[in-house]
């Protein structure tokens, strides 16, 4: 029961307070990550690539993540204050309110026909080039981002907190942040960021599949499961594929298709079935994430009651 109450408290803190506007710990961690990358990846070579080997990226990852994870474990052991510290760690790792704050303005701009604003807003959510997207492309990008980031920013954090408490959620959130900073296949980061990308894949493997199942249970279940089975294996990411395929199927919309990343056009496999995504599907995706969070809390509550 205490685990349910801790998760509920952290979710409520995120709902009412959102991310700290000042002095967010991840901002300081980002500065550390940038320093480590400059130090271990070295200056650019003539072709624009970094000079590091994969082992340098592993070393940098360990220096960034392991000391802070150990510190979280030590602080969680403090009587009385330890559980409060753990709740604080989970609160800082969650991003459901942030997801709403980023996604709803995209849907609102699309409804008002303000494509320029919609492109700008969705550009804050995704890494693809949004400057030439039409309204359908913006809606597709926004819906995909909500489904995928719901898994990363909400459910994976909950999963690792449930499994390993404060050190688990700290390990996950820092690893996920390093993947977002180092995990690109650019000339500079391809070798150095390899470890960060692979570790994040491992940490998200089980949570992503639980999220895909949660999305399926809350939407068009049979279609979601079929899309997950048939479409996810073709997706480049082993974790985003199941999440977005099941989410698109649950919503009954078509996602995927062409997108431009770092100046390079990619034709991505289709996801889901049904009409193309529209503004309302961004909002429906947010509702799906919220419903899945409620489902996880209910499961935790039942687990606590059974084992009380």
List the helices and strands and how they pair.
Elements: H1 2-17, H2 25-41, H3 54-76, H4 81-93, H5 96-111, H6 115-123, H7 135-182, H8 194-218, H9 221-231, H10 240-251, E1 254-261, E2 264-272, H11 279-306
Antiparallel strand pairs: 1-2
Helix pairs in contact: 1-4, 1-11, 2-3, 2-7, 3-7, 4-7, 5-6, 5-7, 5-11, 6-7, 7-8, 7-10, 7-11, 8-9, 8-10, 8-11, 9-10
Subcellular location: Cell membrane
Main location: membrane
Pathway: Cofactor biosynthesis; adenosylcobalamin biosynthesis
Tell me about this structure:
The protein is built from eleven helices and two strands; from the N terminus they run ααααααααααββα. With 308 residues, the protein is mainly alpha-helical. The chain has a two-stranded antiparallel sheet. The protein is globular, with a radius of gyration of 20 Å. This is Cobalamin biosynthesis protein CobD.
């Amino acid at each position: 029961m205490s685990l349910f109450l801790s998760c509920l408290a952290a979710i409520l803190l995120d709902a009412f307070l959102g991310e700290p506007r000042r002095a967010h710990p991840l901002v300081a961690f980002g500065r550390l990550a940038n320093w480590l990358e400059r130090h271990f990846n070295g200056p650019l070579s003539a072709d624009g690539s970094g000079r590091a080997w994969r082992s340098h990226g592993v070393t940098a990852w360990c220096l960034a993540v392991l000391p802070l994870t150990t510190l979280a474990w030590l602080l969680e052991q403090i009587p009385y204050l330890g559980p409060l510290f753990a709740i604080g760690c989970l609160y800082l790792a969650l991003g459901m309110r942030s997801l709403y704050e980023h996604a709803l303005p995209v849907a609102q701009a699309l409804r008002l026909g303000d494509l320029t604003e919609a492109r700008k807003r969705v550009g804050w959510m995704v890494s693809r080039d949004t400057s030439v997207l039409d309204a359908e492309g913006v809606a597709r990008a926004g819906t995909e981002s909500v489904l995928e980031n719901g898994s990363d920013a909400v459910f994976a954090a909950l999963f690792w907190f449930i499994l390993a408490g404060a050190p688990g959620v700290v390990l996950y959130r820092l690893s996920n942040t390093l993947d977002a900073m180092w995990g690109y296949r650019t000339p500079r980061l391809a070798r150095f960021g390899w470890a960060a990308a692979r570790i994040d894949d491992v940490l998200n493997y089980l949570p992503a599949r639980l999220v895909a199942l949660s999305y399926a249970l809350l939407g068009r279940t049979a279609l979601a499961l079929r899309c997950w089975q048939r479409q996810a294996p073709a997706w480049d990411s082993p974790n985003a594929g199941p999440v977005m395929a099941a989410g698109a199927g649950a919503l009954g919309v078509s996602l995927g298709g062409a997108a431009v990343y770092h100046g390079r056009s990619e034709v991505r496999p289709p996801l889901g079935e049904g009409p193309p995504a529209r503004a309302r599907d961004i909002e429906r995706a947010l509702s799906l994430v919220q419903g899945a969070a409620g489902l996880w809390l209910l499961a935790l509550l039942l687990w606590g009651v059974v084992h009380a």
